[in-house]
Design a protein that fits this description.
Blueprint (H helix, E strand, L loop, with lengths): L1 H7 L3 H26 L2 H17 L10 H26 L3 H13 L1 H4 L7 H8 L3 H12 L4 H8 L3 H37 L2
Helix pairs in contact: 2-3, 2-4, 3-4, 8-10, 9-10
Length: 197
């Protein structure tokens, strides 16, 4: 199947880049999809669909081995797998407890989804504290420099929904940063008071 994808790409450089991405990340993509979908065949379908989505963003990928690329690939496969899960859920009317499993997966693996780098370590630490959907959308917007329309397309949501999620994500992040600052000031005040005794 990968050969078919590669044959569709006329630019040799892009073809090579996609092949390298596939070789490096296909196992990671498969295991993320399998964890969400719980079905090997569906996980393979999700990987193939995600690779098709990656083709749209090849021009944004400069270094295949960097954390930024890994995060983009993980975000694409996660979004694709969740979309596939929702589609299958509509078709088979699965029970709501499976949705809870996906939510638990998102919350428990947020650290895996937000790749830490030294220059954005503090921001990523804050993103871990908020909803994984918000962390993903903030990372796409400010780390990968995607515009709202591209985010909507990547996450398979409406443009307005992307804007609303971005607004809510910023508000959640501000709230976390604000509460931490107040805790720091409170702690600082306690330390100053201890010294005056």
């Amino acid at each position: 199947m990968m050969l078919l994808f590669l044959m569709c790409i006329e630019n040799v450089e892009d073809r090579t880049k996609l092949e390298e991405i596939y070789v490096k990340y296909h196992r990671t993509m498969y295991f993320i999809a399998l964890d969400i979908l719980r079905d090997p065949h569906s996980a393979q379908d999700a990987v193939q669909t995600a690779i098709l989505k990656v083709v749209k963003y090849l021009d944004r990928i400069n270094d295949i081995d960097c954390n930024k690329t890994k995060h983009l690939i993980v975000t694409i496969i996660k979004s694709t797998s969740i979309d596939l899960y929702r589609q299958k859920k509509k078709e088979t009317n699965l029970h709501s407890d499976l949705v809870d499993e996906i939510t638990d997966f998102q919350a428990s693996n947020i650290e895996d989804l937000v790749i830490k780098t030294s220059e954005v370590h503090e921001l990523l630490r804050k993103l871990i504290e908020i909803n994984s959907d918000y962390a993903d959308i903030l990372t796409l917007k400010f780390y990968h420099d995607f515009n709202d329309k591209e985010i909507a397309q990547l996450l398979n949501i409406s443009h307005e929904n992307a804007r609303v999620r971005l607004f809510r994500a910023k508000a959640a992040l501000k709230k976390i940063i604000g509460s931490e600052r107040s805790k720091d000031l409170e702690y600082k005040g306690m330390c100053e008071n201890e010294g005056s005794y």
